[in-house]
Amino acid sequence: MVKNKALFLDRDGVINHDKGYTYRIEDFVFIDGIFDLCRAAINAGYIIIVVTNQAGIGRGYYTEADFLHLTKWMCERFEQEGAPITDVFFCPYHPEYGLGDYKKESYDRKPNPGMFLKAKEKWGIAIEDSIMIGDKESDMQAASKAGIGIRCQYIVDGSDRVITSNANSRMYELRKGLLSSCFINNKNSITNCT
Ligand SMILES: [Mg+2]
After folding, report:
1. Is 188 exposed, middle or buried (0-12, 13-18, 19+ CB in 10 A)?
2. What is the rounded average pLDDT for all residues in the chain?
3. What is the pTM of this model?
4. Ligand 1 centre from 122 Cα, in Å?
5. What is the CATH number of domain 15-127+144-189?
6. Domain ranges within the chain, ordered by starting residue
7. CA of 1 to the centre of ligand 1 (A)
8. What is the pLDDT of residues 140-194, one digit of tens each?
């Protein structure tokens, strides 16, 4: 059986501008270029998988239903843009600030690799041929522990909370990299790819 290779994406700070605990459609602003990037990845033979920590659920800022409602809308937007997302994995727990049953250590919560390994199992993913794009060190650590071959940290002016137009140009840079396979052959052309 031929295995799938995947482009794994963190959500906040990669797909949408990270405004902190986004859960409403009206607050969800796509980073310009994300659809182009995903179309390019699909054309290059990758499936798209989202892996996102959602401790806002555990903290009681919004519900799992809120998250799923937003996710359904987000996936429909990707579908409309010709870049369908294959699956979305999320972790609602937080070891310190989770309320009730949500207060626990989870192997799924990045920097742990659980979500990647579940995706690998479910979709038959060749993990070493796969790519992870995240904006935090914990994304890179989780991807590394899972054995993801290509890990890119998407940095917006050194802080994922700072929103600048630079986010958009960086996304195009990543897409260019993906198109020319320099993710694999010329990693130096993209900052923080390992
Ligand atoms: Mg993030």
Report:
1. exposed
2. 85
3. 0.86
4. 23
5. 3.40.50.1000
6. 15-127+144-189
7. 33
8. 999 999 999 888 877 664 443 333 344 555 666 667 666 554 343 333 334 444 4
